[in-house]
Design goal:
four-stranded parallel sheet, three-stranded parallel sheet, uronate isomerase, domain 2, chain A
Length: about 475
């Protein structure tokens, strides 16, 4: 059998190997943005087979499988586990150059000790070898987190979530911090007024209050932010395609709320005003709590309306949008900054054409004494592949503060995806090692070791106030 992965995977040169094995490999892991199931962590979930573990929730793989001719029953349907796995293996053989190819082999190696090249010829043997490990009593959700040396994991949670499962994890005495993230997408979701109205009813029931005005909505969001803060939340998260500069007034926001609360549709311009105005108000809330907010921009979601109607969101039909309005972000940041209420910020882009503009934008709003207050987010989603991670490091080091970077995230629903941190660290060490060998960076192991430690773990720990 052909072997593919070994301990020096992606590491070229002695300096890269030394930085990874002596420094990066030993650092604990903080994942400040995941979509992992809090129910699975609370119940310490086990899996039946490799297909359930690998394919049940992973829209990255479904998207690739469809491109390889898979019918939908093999992706999100009721095909058997081995049928789905076999089709995934067939797909993987045609995916050379895609990060899924690297991730799949790295996950087989790290979790199952399998270094064999995955192919149609080896699929059945690897299926059986992996399933034997999965059936072991110690192969559980929480043990995976411990194996990967996770110290902090942030889930993604609606303001209406009870956080009862976070409480259970604490009550169980689980040593890893599993913290909620405040994600009020539905409050911002003016595109769907019916869903907005339903969400308002839900938060009214939860808080036992009536929300009859924009001011009532802000008070409800403040109450939920207080509750999340009491449960250890230190991060808010927002996803948007674009925001355009616009004029905001309290009277306009009140008028738009009245229409939304009656499930009346808004124009595209009004939707932008609603999002912009509410983001300003939320930013003020976060600044008061010393939270960080993450702004994930440039995603055009659910573009395949037939499939969205059939199987719903987060199933592989989102795409990279056109370039984001820098002017809109400038107005958002500058308005809050003039009030001295601009929160710590992590700004993610999905379209690589925005990368360097984003870094220079963030540089204009840096402010001491906080170290690197305005963060350029890691290479995310369609950009979390080797060449774009390297491009990210090039741009950040050339225009920003590489040593202040808070590192990688998984942004995933799969518990095996923690290997993406290892993937990033290997690429980081290889990139630094190449720079040292070419005399671009100094040949100073202590200096470079500190840089790698900080990017891998220390910066995130201190910047988010995770309080170890």
């Amino acid at each position: 059998m052909k072997h593919y992965i070994d301990e020096n995977f992606l590491l070229n040169g002695e300096y890269a190997k030394r930085l990874y094995h002596e420094v990066a490999k030993e650092q604990p892991l903080i994942d400040y943005h995941t979509h992992l199931s809090i129910v699975d962590i609370a119940s310490d979930k086990r899996w039946n087979d490799l297909a359930e573990l690998w394919l049940l929730t992973d829209h990255y793989k479904w998207r690739q499988m469809r491109a390889n001719g898979a019918e939908e029953y093999l992706c999100t349907g009721n095909a058997s586990g081995f049928e789905k796995f076999k089709k995934w293996v067939e797909t993987l053989q045609n995916s050379i150059g895609n990060p899924l190819y690297h991730w799949a082999h790295l996950e087989l190696y790290r979790f199952f000790g399998i270094d064999t090249l995955l192919s149609v010829d080896t699929a059945y043997k690897i299926w059986n070898m992996a399933n034997e490990v999965i059936q072991h009593k110690d192969f559980t959700c929480r043990n995976i987190l411990k194996k990967m040396n996770v110290k902090v994991l942030c889930t993604t949670d609606d303001p209406c979530d009870s956080l009862e499962y976070h409480d259970k994890i604490i009550k169980d005495g689980f040593e890893i911090k599993v913290l909620p993230t405040f994600r009020p997408d539905r409050a911002l979701g003016a595109e769907n007024p019916i869903m907005f109205k339903e969400w308002i009813k839900k938060i009214e029931t939860l808080l036992k209050i009536s929300i009859r005005s924009f001011d009532d909505l802000l008070e409800a969001l403040k109450l939920r932010a207080d509750f999340f803060n009491s449960k250890g939340c230190r991060v808010a998260d927002h996803g948007f395609t674009n925001i355009l500069p616009c004029k905001i007034s309290l009277s306009t926001m009140r008028r738009l709320f009245n229409r939304l609360s009656r499930a009346m549709p808004l124009s595209l311009e009004e939707i932008n005003v609603w999002k912009f105005g509410l983001l300003l108000e939320l930013g003020r809330i976060y600044a008061e709590k010393d939270w960080a907010w993450m702004l994930h921009s440039g995603v055009l979601r659910n573009v395949n309306s037939r499939m969205f109607s059939s199987i719903g969101p987060d199933t592989g039909f989102d795409i990279m949008a056109n370039s984001v309005s820098i002017e809109g972000l400038v107005l958002l940041f500058d308005t809050l900054n003039k009030e001295q209420r601009l929160p710590k910020t992590i700004l993610f882009n999905l379209n690589p054409s925005d990368s360097e503009a984003f870094i220079t934008l963030l540089g204009a709003f840096q402010e001491g004494p906080l170290f690197n207050k305005m963060q350029y987010g890691p290479a995310w989603w369609f950009l979390d592949r080797k060449e774009k991670i390297e491009s990210h490091l090039e741009s950040l080091s050339g225009l920003g503060l590489l040593g202040g970077f808070v590192g990688m995230v998984t942004d995933s629903r799969s518990f095996l995806s923690f290997c993406r941190h290892e993937y990033f660290r290997r690429i980081l060490c290889n990139w630094l090692g190449f720079g040292i060998e070419k005399k671009i960076f100094p040949d100073d192991f202590e200096l470079m070791s500190t840089l790698v430690k900080n990017i891998s773990f220390t910066n995130a720990s201190t910047w988010f106030n995770f309080n170890f």
